[in-house]
Amino acid sequence: MHHQFHKTLGAYVPEHVTPSSTSPLKLKSAVDKANLGEMWDMILTLDYGVSNVNELPHDRRDEFLNVMSLLLQAFDR
């Protein structure tokens, strides 16, 4: 009975998986301005195993930038 009103929503894509539109340079600048530069370096080194964001493959770079964007928003409040 209720099945006729059900609409297909499509594939769910979590927010943290969607591609980042943030420039790494702009984000890094905002992170440094918020005194989170050490956190940037620590996450990049320990979790991603690189020393520079440009060393990451495109999908991993987007993931990292999204993580840092979320952290910046959380600490910026």
**Mind telling me the C-alpha Rg?**
17 Å
Kindly name the structural category.
mainly alpha
In total, the number of strands is 0
Low-pLDDT segments: none
Major sheet characteristics: none
| Quaternary organisation | single chain
Describe it.
The protein is mainly alpha-helical and 77 residues long. The longest helix has 18 residues, at 58-75. The protein has three helices and no strands. The chain is 52% helix and 0% strand. The mean pLDDT is 83.
Q: Which secondary structure elements does this structure contain, and how are they paired or packed?
A:
Blueprint: H1 24-33, H2 37-48, H3 58-75
What tags apply to this protein structure?
77 residues, 0% strand
Summary?
With 77 residues, the protein is mainly alpha-helical. Helices cover 52% and strands 0% of the residues.
